[in-house]
Design a protein that fits this description.
- The protein is an alpha+beta fold and about 550 residues long.
- The chain has two domains: about 35-270 and about 530-550, Periplasmic binding protein-like II (D-Maltodextrin-Binding Protein, domain 2), CATH 3.40.190; about 280-520, Dipeptide-binding Protein, Domain 3 (Dipeptide-binding Protein, domain 3, Roll), CATH 3.10.105.
- It contains 17 helices and 22 strands.
- The strands form five sheets. Strands 1, 8, 9, 10, 11, 12, 13, 16, 17, 18, 19 and 20 form a twelve-stranded mixed sheet that branches. Strands 4-5-7-6 form a four-stranded antiparallel sheet, with helices on one face.
- The radius of gyration is 23 Å and the shape is globular.
């Protein structure tokens, strides 16, 4: 046992050695400067707020960019951001924003109406010279009801809607529509995502792929200079190595600690464990086999866009009986108890139970291996089959240890005759391949962006979200009747009616069984106790502007 412990320590220390060497200069400078090093589970995909869907990219950019409106700290309640006020017409189809004056981008250029129009139009206007530089997946998920954005004067813009959208104001607080510097985009074109420029409290310094990103305080920030001089987002994939780095003072904070280490963390007087309920769901998606190509990039499945087989099309998973059998073969209660260690609750629907329209009357699939085998036999697979499971290479708020959960699923499915093989790639490639529908099954999940049920149900389970290359619906559930319910719910401001429509849609989604919903997890972070001012957000976004090191 002592030998094993010694070897483990040597391995972890070896992992940390590059951290020490890479940031030795920063640690010396930190005596004069306030440099916060935050350990992350993975690297970013891109640094363009309009062209990402992953949390690692978002948490870096939340400190570089800002939007017209924003969430109050620790909530999803709105407050002014780069807009000081706004007016909405009674039909909900025109939104006018008065913009904040005297704001500068980090490149010294002025924030104004032209910057707002540019930041929106590049995502929806195919005639924009900058539309070619992104996939703009989130625009399709959340903003396709916007028709156009127009400049009224230098400090006033108007958003014209194609149709009413009950979640549009909270959606405008999302990272997707953060305002970028037109001058930077014009200068760097397709490479602007490597050198981001916004109006936020920290400006970009460097990105060393798979190692770290450095930001420094923006002296010209309109709210006042941050207390921190620098933030370094350091990639340490292994949760045990992240914790050890924190314990020895190599970093100041870590994300997604292993729940088995919570007692150890609480016993350390130098550490502070932060934990709050998460607005999330972790799941395993089964690719049902059909998506579409969004030729006009309008975020909707149009009549002239035919269904086509996904690259990961796999005959057994196209059958509902097989998907239901897989749901019944997995003991979710055991996974939550033994892997999440009390930091999560079992999920039965695809959104958190506290949200508008949650259907608690849906009966979860029971853990019933015997019935699972019967369903497999009825579907034509009495001896099971072989299937590939994509396993995330990074910890996420809804799934801190994907490989361990993958192993549990592998064991449960093996017991009913389904042989599971694992597939792992880097995080950026993982997202690209699953959005393109190359997987047969995959582990993923979602943290809500705006507190609205549409951000779960439409984005994750709507047929419009099965577009190959930008899919958010990784189960490729393509029932257009369910999509009609979700679209109708988004178009009404009647809260009761919205809830009813969402509840009906959840019944249909549950019956199709394209997902094994595993857990709604708490979000957990750990900081050194001398780090003050950080406030957790329900959306798991990371804002370091108020933070200081004492």
């Amino acid at each position: 046992m002592k030998c094993k412990v010694f070897v483990a320590l040597v391995v972890v220390c070896a992992l940390l050695l590059p951290v020490s060497m890479a940031f030795a200069a920063d640690k010396k400078t930190a005596k004069a400067e306030k440099v916060l090093i935050y350990a992350c589970s993975g690297d970013v995909e891109r640094l363009d707020p309009g062209d990402v869907t992953d949390g690692e990219s978002i948490q870096r950019m939340d400190n570089i960019f800002e939007g017209l409106v924003e969430f109050k700290p620790g909530s999803t309640e709105l407050q002014p951001g780069l807009a000081t006020s706004w007016q909405i017409t009674t039909d909900g189809k025109e939104l006018t924003f008065n913009l904040r004056r005297g704001v500068k981008f980090q490149d010294g250029t002025d924030f104004n109406a032209d910057a707002v129009v540019f930041s929106f139009a590049r995502q929806y206007d195919k005639n924009s010279a900058y539309n070619q530089y992104g996939e703009w997946a989130y625009w399709g998920y959340m903003f396709s009801d916007i028709d156009r954005v127009e400049k009224i004067d230098d400090y006033k813009v108007k958003i014209f809607m194609k149709r009413p959208n009950a979640s549009i104001m909270t959606s405008l607080a999302m990272f997707t529509v953060a305002i970028v510097s037109p001058a930077n985009a014009e200068s760097l074109k397709e490479n602007a995502f490597k050198n981001p420029v916004g109006t936020g409290p920290f400006k970009f310094v460097e990105w060393v792929k798979d190692d770290h990103i450095t930001l420094e305080a923006f002296d010209g920030y309109w709210r006042g200079r941050p207390a921190l001089d620098k933030i370094i987002f350091k990639v340490i994939p292994d949760p045990s190595a992240r914790l050890l780095a924190l314990e020895v003072g190599e970093v100041h904070g870590i994300e997604y600690p292993n729940p088995t280490d919570f007692d150890r963390i609480r016993a350390n007087k130098k550490l502070a464990l932060m934990s709050e309920p998460g607005m999330n769901v972790g799941y395993m998606a089964m690719n049902a086999g059909y998506g579409y190509t969004d030729a006009n990039k309008n975020g909707m499945k149009d009549a002239d866009e035919p269904w086509e087989k996904t690259p990961g099309y796999y005959e057994p998973l196209t059958k509902k009986q097989v998907r239901q059998a897989i749901n019944m073969a997995i003991d979710k209660q055991s996974i939550v108890k033994n892997i999440y260690k009390g930091t999560a609750s079992v999920a039965k629907n695809g959104m958190p139970p506290f949200m508008l329209g949650y259907n608690d009357k849906v009966a979860d699939y029971p853990y019933d291996p015997k019935r699972a085998k019967q369903l497999l036999a009825e579907a034509g697979y009495p001896n099971g089959f072989e299937v590939t499971l994509y396993v995330m290479p990074v910890s996420r708020p809804y799934m801190f240890d994907p490989p361990k959960i993958g192993e549990a699923i592998q064991s449960y499915l093996g017991a009913v005759g389904i042989k599971v093989k694992f597939y792992q790639v880097d995080w950026g490639t993982y997202l690209q391949e699953t959005q393109s529908g190359k997987h047969q099954m995959c582990l993923l999940g979602w943290t809500g962006d705006n507190g609205d049920p549409d951000n779960f149900l439409n984005v994750l389970y709507g047929a419009n979200s099965t577009s190959l290359g930008t899919a958010g619906n990784y189960g490729f559930y393509n029932d257009m009747k369910a999509q009609e319910l979700l679209s109708a719910a988004l178009a009404t401001f009647d809260v009761k009616k919205r809830a009813e429509l969402y509840q009906k849609a959840q019944e249909m989604i549950h019956e199709s069984a394209n997902w094994v919903y595993i857990a709604h997890s708490n979000q957990n972070l750990v900081f050194l106790k001398n780090v003050k001012g950080f406030k957790m957000n329900p959306t798991s976004r990371m804002f370091f502007y108020p933070v200081n090191i004492e």
